[in-house]
Amino acid sequence: MGIRDNIRGGALTETTLLVLLALYRPNHGYGVSQFVVQKTGGRVRLGAGTLYGAIDNLSRKKWIAPLKDEGCTRRKEYVITDVGKQMVEKELRRLNEVMRLAARTVKENENG
């Protein structure tokens, strides 16, 4: 199962955004999973296939990169790259625009 990010519109899937956010600090798959559960209050739980598919996809896109193996751990850790950070910042701008539009529209139509 691949990640379908809307390239033309610039929208990232929630899974993509959450994995990128989890990797602002070096982390391994299980740690990413725990970050997502904790930060979403349990609303989002990534299955292993979704999580590792996302990690593979983001690694291929060069939005995340594996850390150099220190040799003492079996868990492969990843960290967000500068390109990944640029994608998060772009998504934050897009989401803020959507929120402003939604808030304006609701306010304009509150009184019928």
SSE blueprint:
Layout: H1 14-22, E1 27-28, H2 29-39, H3 48-60, E2 64-66, E3 77-80, H4 82-108
Antiparallel strand pairs: 1-3, 2-3
Helix pairs in contact: 1-3
What would you say this structure looks like, in words?
It is a single chain. This protein is mainly α. The protein has one domain: Winged helix-like DNA-binding domain superfamily/Winged helix DNA-binding domain (Arc Repressor Mutant, subunit A, Orthogonal Bundle). It is built from four helices and three strands. It has helices spanning 14-22, 29-39, 48-60, 82-108, and strands at residues 27-28, 64-66, 77-80. Strands 1-3-2 form a three-stranded antiparallel β-sheet. Helix 1 (14-22) packs across helix 3. The longest helix is centred in the last third of the chain and has 27 residues, at 82-108. It starts with 13 loop residues before the first helix and ends with a helix.
- As a percent range, the share of strand residues is 5-15%
Rg over C-alpha atoms, rounded to the nearest angstrom: 16 Å
Given helix and strand content, the structural type is: mainly alpha
Just give the CATH class. Answer: Mainly Alpha
User: Please, how many domains?
Assistant: 1
**Overall number of strands:** 3
Concise account of the structure shown:
The protein is mostly helical. It contains four helices and three strands, in the order H-E-H-H-E-E-H.
Features of the shown structure:
112 residues, mainly alpha, three-stranded antiparallel β-sheet, 4 helices, 8% strand, elongated
